[in-house]
Amino acid sequence: xxxxxxxxxxxxxxxxxxxxxxxxxxxxxxxxxxxxxxxxxxxxxxxxxxxxxxxxxxxxxxxxxxxxxxxxxxxxxxxxxxxxxxxxxxxxxxxxxxxxxxxxxxxxxxxxxxxxxxxxxxxxxxxxxxxxxxxxxxxxxxxxxxxxxxxxxxxxxxxxxxxxxxxxxxxxxxxxxxxxxxxxxxxxxxxxxxxxxxxxxxxxxxxxxxxxxxxxxxxxxxxxxxxxxxxxxxxxxxxxxxxxxxxxxxxxxxxxxxxxxxxxxxxxxxxxxxxxxxxxxxxxxxxxxxxxxxxxxxxxxxxxxxxxxxxxxxxxxxxxxxxxxxxxxxxxxxxxxxxxxxxxxxxxxxxxxxxxxxxxxxxxxxxxxxxxxxxxxxxxxxxxxxxxxxxxxxxxxxxxxxxxxxxxxxxxxxxxxxxxxxxxxxxxxxxxxxxxxxxxxxxxxxxxxxxxxxxxxxxxxxxxxxxxxxxxxxxxxxxxxxxxxxxxxxxxxxxxxxxxxxxxxxxxxxxxxxxxxxxxxxxxxxxxxxxxxxxxxxxxxxxxxxxxxxxxxxxxxxxxxxxxx
Length: 565
Ligand code: FAD
Prior knowledge:
By secondary structure, the chain is of the alpha+beta class. It has 18 helices and 18 strands. The site of flavin-adenine dinucleotide has 40 residues, from helix 2, strand 2, strand 8 and strand 16.
């Protein structure tokens, strides 16, 4: 069997490649036009392109600019689906988790969780649940769960104020960086020949009789419009799926979005050595995760029905209170919005239970749905980050079967396509450390660079040495100055937010959202795309305004005065 992990990374993209991609979009007859550049669209583009189909992907904003950069970034079996007897979903998620650890060892890393629950009966139930959790995964997870004694619970979560019966449990799942996972999948699709265009919005779905035969795509940078002809158009538009179905004249809305928010605190305010799970302080029976991230902790998430703007969800005081109350009750802290260094809000594309908003969104299905009507349009939505690959395989199986002939016999091979690191993580880090030594760079940056850039790490280190850009982009965060250049030149970044919010997570993790680095990023973009001073300034201002609006009650020091909305 061929080893697709050996496929080399693409060559650097020449500056005019975006114009060429737009022309190609209108010229070629595509087998599959994917609309949406989140994890779902990325996965479908990779699955289809690696089967040899002609694939184009259009995204109206940036890759992962929707829900796929707003998740908890867990690649997990979904422990809480136990309560809903969601054994099938858990099994599929656990299998996909293990597959992703193999395909992207640099991006999908094991993470230990500690559950310090109170009450003997509850603790016993959790123990039974964790046996099931490990068992459903075929005992193949990163490590098996175990019961913890009091001193171990305290060692794992040193800040913990109360755990009533003194015991707890440890179990394992995995963590990733959701936006970088999307990028890795998209770039793998490009290696197989997919054409990818961001800032390209589908404004109209084209039909010939009953059948959808492609879409009109507007380039949001130049205003140009092209018609992309496709045998199958796939809507991977997440919470916007009802809008695309509306363009195609398809039936009733099928989604009930739910909002989920996260707060980011400095580890000095919330001491955790492992990830933790604590109960919410409402009667919704949910738990709140605390996820360590270098010297910060991400706390999330809320989950409730949302009917505001799909384009700009933000935090409100109730969201902040929900998370802070859970943490403060468990840790005896007095955290408020003012203690957070960052915050973000995302929308889950949950399938509506016949539109019944009385149903708690926690109870709505995390399963995905595939809807093949009208003919020629396949809507793929719902689901989770973790199971994107299985979801994509299912979607492209349907398309391949419809295309028939030799194409219909093509099988998915994404279970063997590397997502950017061939070989072991430790070996790649060791090689990068040696290279750092040779280039006069600090070997301590090697692991960070490999974990984010995989096989491209050596080339990135060479560029860092060439430009002297091996220092942090923003003090206190591990991202390097060279990564901004790399994002602009290699990773489809077209705005300040693309660089600071998604290629790196600076805007989420820096109290000032990385605004100190924004002029530098704007200068790189200006050089690459011929921006003038006014356009650079507008780009920075727009980014600051969006972050301020999303953070809501969480302060954004250093924002331009007019950014207060
Ligand atoms: P999106 O990422 O939203 O992508 C849709 C894209 O379509 C957008 O980029 C949008 O710009 C584009 N688009 C829309 N309309 C058009 C158009 N007309 N033309 C062109 N492009 C268009 N899952 C996990 O497995 N683990 C987790 O830890 C986890 N945590 C979560 C926490 C929260 C708070 C939330 C909200 C979700 C979480 N999920 C998690 C679920 C997971 O994040 C989502 O299922 C997944 O990101 C959805 O991806 P998507 O590609 O379907 O949608």
